[in-house]
C-alpha cells in the first residue's frame, strides 16, 4: 500500500483544487442564466463538504467540530440539485413540483437544527454511533438513486437531440456511478484514507466534467447576452424616438444575444433585459411589421432553423431536435410557424436546398 504521508498529501491537494475550482465557477454560473443556478449551488454544496473534510482531517483543533453537524444537510442536497440542473437542460424550465426532491434536505436540516439546540450532541459522538452508520448507508442509496435518474434523463435527451456532448456527459455519470459503488465496496477491506483519496479524486473528476460541459454548451446562449449591455442605454434612449429606431435596437439585441432560442421567452423577458416597457416593444413591432410579438420571435427562430437544416454540423439532427435548438416547444409548433413564414415544410425546404450544389451560398444568404 502507498505510504500514508503521500496519500494525505494527495487528499490535501485535491481538496484545495476542488475548493478553488468549485467556488470560482459557482460564482461565474450564479451570474449567468437560471439553468446555471442549480449547478452553481451543487458546486457550493460539495465545496462546503470539502471544507469540512479539511478541518476535521487536517486541522482538528482549529474550530469546534460541532459546527460541522450542519454540513450533513448537504448529503441530501447535492445530487437533487444536480438532478434539477439536468431537468433544466432537458425541458428548458423546472416546474415547482420538481423542487419536491429538495424536501429530504430540508427535513435533514430541520432535524439537525433541533438535535443541536436540544441537547448539543457532539459531532464525534454522533459519527461513532451505530445509528449514524445506518444513516450514511441510507445517504449512499439516496445519492445512488439520483445518479441513476440523472443517467436516465441524459439518455433521453441524448436520443432526442443526438447531442454528442450529452452522450459524453452520460458516460461521465456512468463512470462515476460504477467507480463510486466500487470504492464503497472496497472500503470494506481498504484503509480509510485510501478510500478517502479515491473518493476525492472521483468527485474532482465529476465536477471538472460538469464544469467543462456547461462552459462548452451553456455560455453560447448566455454569454452573448452580456455583450448587449452597451445596447441597453441606446435602446432606452431610442424609445423616445421613432418605432423604426426602437426596432433596430431590439433586432440588434436579438441577433447578438440569441435569446429567442429560449423556449419560454416572453415579451417580459425582452423588456427586463433591455429596460424597455412591454407596451412600447409590442407597439413598435406592430407598427413596423404589422405582427404580434410571438410571430416576430418565431420569424427569428425559423430563420435560424433554415441555417441549421442546411448545416453539415446539424445534418444528423432530427427535425424535432432542430426545432428545440432554435426555441420551439414542440415539433408541431415548429411546422406551423415554418409553413406560415416560408409557405413550405422544413423537410421540403431541406430537400430542395440540399440538392443545390452551392449550399454554402444558400446558408450564407440566409445568415
Explain the overall architecture:
It is a single chain. The protein has helices at residues 4-30, 35-58, 78-91, 103-119, 123-128, 130-161, 164-186, 192-217, 219-226, 229-238, 243-257, 267-274, 278-289, 293-310, 319-326, 331-342, 346-354, 359-366. With 367 residues, it is mainly α. The radius of gyration is 25 Å and the shape is elongated. 26% of the residues are buried.
How do the helices and strands line up, and which of them pair or pack?
Layout: H1 4-30, H2 35-58, H3 78-91, H4 103-119, H5 123-128, H6 130-161, H7 164-186, H8 192-217, H9 219-226, H10 229-238, H11 243-257, H12 267-274, H13 278-289, H14 293-310, H15 319-326, H16 331-342, H17 346-354, H18 359-366
Helix pairs in contact: 1-2, 1-8, 2-3, 3-6, 6-7, 7-8, 10-11, 11-13, 14-15, 14-16, 14-17, 14-18
Structural descriptors:
elongated, Arc Repressor Mutant, subunit A, mainly alpha, about 375 residues, single chain, Rhopdopsin 7-helix transmembrane proteins
Note the gap between the termini. 61 Å
Instruction: Compute the CA-based radius of gyration.
Output: 25 Å
Mean pLDDT: 78
Largest sheet: none
Low-confidence stretches: 219-231, 359-363
CATH fold category name of the largest domain: Rhopdopsin 7-helix transmembrane proteins
Count up the helices: 18
What is the H-and-E element order? HHHHHHHHHHHHHHHHHH
Number of domain modules: 3
Shape: elongated
Number of strands: 0
Bin the helical content. Answer: over 70%
SS-based structural class? mainly alpha
Amino acid at each position: 500500500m502507498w505510504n500514508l504521508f503521500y496519500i494525505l498529501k494527495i487528499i490535501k491537494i485535491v481538496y484545495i483544487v476542488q475548493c478553488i475550482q468549485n467556488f470560482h465557477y459557482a460564482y461565474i454560473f450564479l451570474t449567468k442564466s437560471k439553468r446555471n443556478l442549480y449547478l452553481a449551488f451543487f458546486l457550493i454544496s460539495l465545496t462546503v463538504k470539502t471544507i469540512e473534510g479539511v478541518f476535521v482531517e487536517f486541522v482538528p483543533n482549529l474550530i469546534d467540530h460541532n459546527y460541522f453537524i450542519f454540513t450533513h444537510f448537504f448529503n441530501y442536497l447535492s445530487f437533487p440539485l444536480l438532478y434539477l440542473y439536468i431537468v433544466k437542460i432537458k425541458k428548458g424550465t423546472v416546474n415547482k413540483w420538481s423542487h419536491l426532491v429538495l424536501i429530504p434536505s430540508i427535513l435533514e436540516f430541520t432535524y439537525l437544527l433541533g438535535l443541536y439546540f436540544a441537547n448539543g450532541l457532539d459531532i464525534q459522538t454522533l459519527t461513532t454511533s451505530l445509528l449514524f452508520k445506518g444513516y450514511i448507508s441510507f445517504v449512499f442509496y439516496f445519492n445512488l438513486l439520483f445518479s441513476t435518474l440523472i443517467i436516465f434523463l441524459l439518455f433521453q435527451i441524448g436520443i432526442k437531440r443526438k447531442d454528442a456532448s450529452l452522450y459524453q456527459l452520460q458516460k461521465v455519470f456512468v463512470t462515476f456511478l460504477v467507480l463510486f459503488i466500487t470504492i464503497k465496496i472496497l472500503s470494506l477491506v481498504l484503509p480509510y484514507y485510501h478510500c478517502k483519496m479515491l473518493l476525492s479524486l472521483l468527485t474532482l473528476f465529476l465536477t471538472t466534467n460538469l464544469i467543462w460541459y456547461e462552459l462548452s454548451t451553456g455560455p453560447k446562449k448566455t454569454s452573448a447576452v452580456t455583450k448587449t449591455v452597451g445596447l441597453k442605454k441606446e435602446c432606452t434612449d431610442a424609445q423616445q424616438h421613432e418605432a423604426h429606431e426602437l426596432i433596430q435596437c431590439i433586432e440588434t439585441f436579438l441577433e447578438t444575444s440569441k435569446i429567442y432560442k429560449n423556449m419560454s421567452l416572453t415579451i417580459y423577458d425582452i423588456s427586463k433585459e433591455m429596460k424597455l416597457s412591454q407596451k412600447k416593444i409590442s407597439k413598435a413591432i406592430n407598427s413596423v411589421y404589422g405582427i404580434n410579438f410571438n410571430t416576430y420571435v418565431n420569424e427569428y427562430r425559423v430563420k435560424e432553423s433554415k441555417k441549421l437544416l442546411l448545416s453539415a454540423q446539424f445534418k444528423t439532427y432530427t427535425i424535432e431536435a432542430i426545432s428545440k435548438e432554435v426555441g420551439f416547444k414542440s415539433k408541431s409548433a415548429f411546422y406551423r410557424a415554418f409553413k406560415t413564414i416560408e409557405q413550405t415544410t422544413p423537410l421540403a425546404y431541406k430537400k430542395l436546398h440540399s440538392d443545390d450544389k452551392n449550399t454554402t451560398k444558400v446558408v450564407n444568404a440566409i445568415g
